[in-house]
Amino acid sequence: MIEIVDLVKEYKTTKALRGIDLVVNSGELFAYLGPNGAGKTTTIRILTGLTRITVGRARLNGHDVAKESLAAKQQYGLVPQHINLDSDLTVFENLLVHGCLHHMPRRSAKQRIDHLLSYIDLSEKRDTLVKHLSGGMKRRVLIARALMHAPKILFLDEPSVGLDANIRRRIWALIKKIQQEGVTIFLTTHYIEEAEFLADRVAFLDQGRIVALDTPQNLMAGIGSWAMDQLVADNMHTLYFHSQEDAKHYAAGLKNGFAIRRVNLEDAFLSLTGKKVI
Amino acid sequence: MMRGWMAVYFREMLILRRRLSRLMIAWAVSPLLYLVAFGYAMGKNVVIQEHSYLEFLIPGLVAMASMTQAFAIGSEINIARFYWHIFEEFQTAPISNAAYVLGEVLAGMTRALLASGLILILGIPFGVLLSYNLFFWLALVLNSLVFASLAVAVAMLIQSHADQALLNSLIITPMAFLGGTFFPLDHLPWWAQKILYLLPLTHAAQAVRASAFGAQPNVVDYLILATIAGLAFLLAILTVNRARD
Q1: A78-91 pLDDT, tens digit each
Q2: ipTM of this model?
Q3: Which overall architecture, per CATH, does domain A2-217 show?
Q4: Where are the domains of chain A?
Q5: Which chain B residue lies closest to A73 (C-alpha atoms)?
Q6: Which candidate from A11, A50, A97 shows the least CB-CB separation from B11?
Q7: B124 CB-side CA count, 13 A
Q8: Contacting residues of A for B94, CB less than 8 Å apart
Q9: Which residue of B has its CA nearest to A78?
C-alpha cells in the first residue's frame, strides 16, 4: 500500500507538488497521468527516496520514506524513465549487482535471474553486454532488475516512452502479468491509451495537484460517451455526447471538418484542466 | 545494511575487469614519459639524497599515481551520476551511506594500488629495484584512502562534469607537481616548504620514499595521512545525502 499525505515539494523557484493526498491499495495498478512538468516524476522520486520532502509524509507498506528509508527501500522496485543500466556489463551482471545491493545470497540471485530472464523472454541475452541490446530489450531488463528482489510495490516511470507500438504492447502485457502476481503498481505516463488499458484507477495531475481520481471508466463517463472533434477556423473544438445518435444528430447540420469517436481519458483530462496531456 | 559495500565494490570491480587492459595502458603512459624524459634523459647524472634521480623519482611517481588514480573514482561516480544515472540505483538500494562510501573508496584504492604497482614494474627495465616493504605499502594504502574519500565527497558535492575537471586542474595537478614527487622540498624557500607540508601528498611521498630507500619512516607522516583519511572518509559519508535534490 502507498499512502501520501499532504505532500508538498518546493524547489528554489518552483512548487513541484502542492499538497498531494493519495492512497494506492495493495495489488492495485494505479496510473498517474499528467503533462510534462505536472509533478509525476517528482512524486516517484519522493516515494523512492531520491528527492527530499518539503512538507507532508509518504509511506510504503507502512514504512515512512523519510524516517525509515532503508525499510521503505526494501518494499519497492523502480523502473526509471531513463535507461540507467551499466552498458559495459552484461544483462546477467546488471541483475546480479542489483541482487547484491538488495542483500540477496549469490545462489538465490542467480536462480532469480534465470527465472526473470525467462519471464521477460530474454534468456538468450543473459551474457550479452547491455550496450548491444535494443531499446525495447533494455526496457524489459530494467523491469526485470526492478523485480529482482521480489518487491511488493513497483514504480514505473514512463515505462514505454520512446518505444514503438508493438514493443509498447509487449511491455503492457508484462506489466499486467506482474500485477496478476499481486504486486502493487504505481505507473506514471503521458500515454492516454497506456493508462486506459492498464490502470484500475487513474489520478489526473496538473501543476502539482490531483484534479481528479477515479477509475478510467468513471472519469470518462463524467463527460459523456461520444466526442465530436470539429475544426473551426483552424482550431479544434470538441463536443461531448451521451450517445452516438446525439453526436450524429448534431453533426447532421455540418458539411465537413468533423469526426465522431469514443470518449477517451484525454477528453476527460482536457475537460478538467483545459489542456492536453503532452 | 553495512554489507551493501560489497555490492558497490563488486560492481566497480566488474567494470574495472572489463576495462583493465585499456586502463593499464592509460596508467602507464604518463609515468613512462616522466621516467624517460625526467628520470633517464635529464636526470641521468643527477644524485639526490645519495640515490640516482630515477631511484628518487619512482617513489614520487608511485605516490602521485596512488593519488591521481584514487581521486579518479570521483570522475567515475560523476559519470554514473550525471550521465548514466546509475547512481540512482545505489540511492534506491537499502544500503547505508557509509556502505556506499566504503564500496566506492575501496574501488578507488584498488585502482590506485594497481596503478602504483604498474609503475614499480615499469621501473624494472630502468634498473630500479627498491625496498617495497610493509611501510611502503601502508603509506600507499593511506594515501589512496585519503584521495578516494575526498573524491567521493567531491563527487557528491559538485553539480556538473565541468566542476570535476576544474577541481582536477586546481587541486590535483598542482599537488602532483609540488607534493615532493619530482624534487626534494628542501630545494624550496622555507615558506613554500611550510605550505607544501600541509598537503597530504607531501607526507605520502616522504613516507613512500623513505621506506623504499630502506630508511626508518617518519611516524608523523603516517599519523597525518591516517588523520586526514579518517576526516575525509567522514566527510564523504556526510555528503552522500547532499546528492539528493
Answers
A1: 999 999 999 999 99
A2: 0.88
A3: 3-Layer(aba) Sandwich (3.40)
A4: 2-217, 224-262
A5: B94
A6: A97
A7: 6
A8: 70-71, 73-74, 101-103
A9: B92
